[in-house]
Design brief:
It is a single chain. By secondary structure, the protein is of the alpha+beta class. It has three domains: 178 residues, 2-Layer Sandwich (Formiminotransferase-cyclodeaminase, Chain B, domain 1); 163 residues, 2-Layer Sandwich (Alpha-Beta Plaits), CATH 3.30.70.670; 203 residues, Four Helix Bundle (Hemerythrin (Met), subunit A) (Up-down Bundle), CATH 1.20.120.680. The protein is built from 18 helices and 13 strands. Strands 1, 2, 3, 4, 5, 6 and 7 form a seven-stranded mixed beta sheet that branches. A four-stranded antiparallel beta sheet has the order 11-12-8-13. Strand 11 and strand 12 form a beta hairpin. The relative contact order is 0.07.
């Protein structure tokens, strides 16, 4: 799975369009990063940038943006409605896919060290990256704001995690920067059949973590024996919500921030709003995602609603997204376009991908004199076809009354096969990309001292990609064994085909490993990878033969 991280830095400038634009151009100038949004606020005198990409590229873009801001923004002259502590005020990293919070903490530390050492800016780590509980809260670190920074830097307990502890000319201009790691925030609105924002707010009070004050029958807020107002918690953790009326839509909404969709998923909040609306005599007419959403959140919603309908969730990502859209009414107010709203799909826009080609175009390109795509990409394609066949048999088994006792197992196989199908599709391009890197290394001038090192590195990478295909093919054989044994017997030939295609993927991948190993100088690498690949292929070939034999026996009986 491709590693994608989001960065949402806040800079203390919301009025000067030239400064705002120059920071944006700095971010866009880093390869491997996509700038998703620039949101300036004049009253707050603050601009929020949202960009995503590969981890190293995102760190580089964040550093360059902080560097640019440190040169263009003078905190001694800054005034604005929003709390702030520095020119580059807050820089959070957010995991999107292929990496976790620990990875984002390391990114925050990497950036913090560079900002502190290279730019001479005091850096505080916050949220998940914080090294003390007191620094976990952004509000705690920023208390007193920029104006309190000279005194704060003198206090030993507020010594920065990186960078200088003195308030000199440089820090007076830049202020301090707060860098951290946090979960993805999903802004989500649920539409209700009323113009009355008070009714929408009643739903918000019931679902949000903060809840509401407890009242008596006359509406008076009740207090405990210590005189503190009694709070009735809402239904969900990590949820903030209010009710409001949108004149443009002619209806009220429950406006929701999901602080951590892994704790409280999107679909659970939607279902709760439906339940709470019914109690008030209202209907939920649809919902909208404001800004972007991680693919995992929308896929989980699709799986949830399919299962609720008694259908198998072992379908393509495209179908899961479509079901989520239909079930939550995401297109009620305006068409929900996944390529614009789902982060990972947005990143794919404009990229040339072999797996996106029509079958005829791909085969024509394969048949041309171009050396790529080649056998490695074909191996990955065979793997995706094997996975698709296993998922197909699982879906033809799920829902059939005579197989009810194995529905759960078949669905699990199908869902895993769908996931692996997509991974093999990505390997089609990954193999070609690795080959192209090798070609570029070979173009380095022969006199360059770096040439042989770069060629060796690129050749190793070109070896490891088909090895990855080979390893995953062994999982495919396991899927085919399962659907041959327990799948719908009317699809036994397709189940056998899954094994045949998995073996084809493995054999071709193995040949690609071998052809690359012969050009590598590292004897330890050659021996280790060669042995590993040979053992995996032997296991796959044996399982494939056994599986095909079982299929033939059942077809001839």
């Amino acid at each position: 799975m491709e590693k994608i991280v989001e960065c949402v830095p806040n800079f203390s400038e919301g009025k000067n369009r030239e400064v705002i634009s120059r920071i944006a151009e700095t971010i866009k100038g880093v390869e491997g990063v996509m700038l998703m949004d620039v949101d300036p606020g004049e009253a707050t005198n603050r601009t929020v940038y949202t960009f995503v990409g590969e981890p190293d590229a995102v760190v580089e873009a964040a550093f360059k943006a902080v560097e640019t801001a440190s040169k263009l923004i003078d905190m001694r002259k800054h005034k604005g409605a929003h709390p702030r502590m520095g020119a580059a005020d807050v820089v959070p990293f957010v995991p999107v896919s292929g990496l976790n919070m620990e990875d984002c903490i390391k990114l925050a530390e990497k950036l913090g060290e560079r900002v502190g050492n290279e730019l001479g800016i005091p850096v505080y780590l916050y949220e998940y990256a914080a090294r003390t509980e007191e620094r976990r809260s952004l509000a705690n670190i920023r208390e007193g704001e920029y104006e309190a920074l000279p005194k704060k830097l003198q206090d030993p307990k507020w010594k920065p995690d990186y960078g200088p502890s003195e308030f000199n000319d440089n820090t007076a201009r830049t202020g301090a920067t707060i860098i951290g790691a946090r979960e993805f925030l999903i802004a989500y609105n649920v539409n209700v059949s009323t113009r009355d924002k008070k009714l929408a707010h009643q739903i918000a009070l019931n679902i949000r973590e903060k809840g509401r004050f407890k009242r008596d029958k006359n509406g008076k807020i009740l207090k405990d024996e210590n005189g503190k107002k009694i709070v009735v918690p809402g239904r969900f953790k990590a949820v903030r919500a209010i009710g409001w009326y949108i004149n443009e839509y002619g209806q009220a909404q429950v406006s929701i921030n999901l602080i951590n969709h892994k704790i409280t998923p999107l679909h659970k909040v939607f279902e709760a709003c439906v339940e709470e609306a019914q109690k008030l005599g209202l209907r939920v007419t649809g919902s909208e995602i404001v800004g972007m959403v991680p693919k995992s959140a929308i896929l989980e919603a699709g799986k949830y609603f399919l299962k609720k309908q008694g259908k198998s969730a072992a379908v393509s990502e495209e179908e899961l997204i479509h079901i989520a859209d239909l079930s939550m009414g995401l297109s009620q107010l305006y068409k929900f376009v996944p390529e614009e709203k789902v982060i990972e799909l947005k990143l794919e826009q404009g990229k040339k991908r072999l797996w996106k080609m029509r079958i005829r175009d791909f085969v024509n390109e394969l048949a041309s004199s171009s050396p790529a795509p080649g056998g490695g990409s074909v191996a990955a394609l065979c793997g995706s076809l094997s996975a698709a066949l296993s998922s197909m048999v699982s879906n033809l088994t799920f829902g059939k009354k005579e197989f009810e006792n194995i529905w759960e197992g078949m669905e699990k196989v199908g869902m895993e096969a769908q996931r692996l199908k997509d991974e093999f599709l990505s390997l089609i391009d990954k193999d070609t990309d690795a080959f192209n890197k090798l070609m570029n290394a070979l173009k380095i001038p022969k006199k360059s001292p770096e040439r042989m090192k770069k060629i060796e590195e690129a050749t190793k990478e070109a070896t490891l990609v088909p090895l990855e295909t080979l390893k995953r093919a062994e999982t495919l054989i396991g899927f085919s064994e399962e659907v041959v044994k327990n799948g719908n017997p009317n699809s036994i030939s397709d189940a056998g085909g899954a094994a045949i295609m998995a073996e084809a993927a493995a054999r071709e991948a193995y040949l690609n490993v071998l052809i690359n190993l012969k050009d590598i100088e590292d004897d330890e690498f050659i021996e280790r990878i060669g042995k590993e690949a040979g053992k995996i292929l032997s296991r796959i070939e044996k399982k494939a033969r056994d599986t095909e034999k079982k299929v033939r026996e059942r077809l001839s009986s």
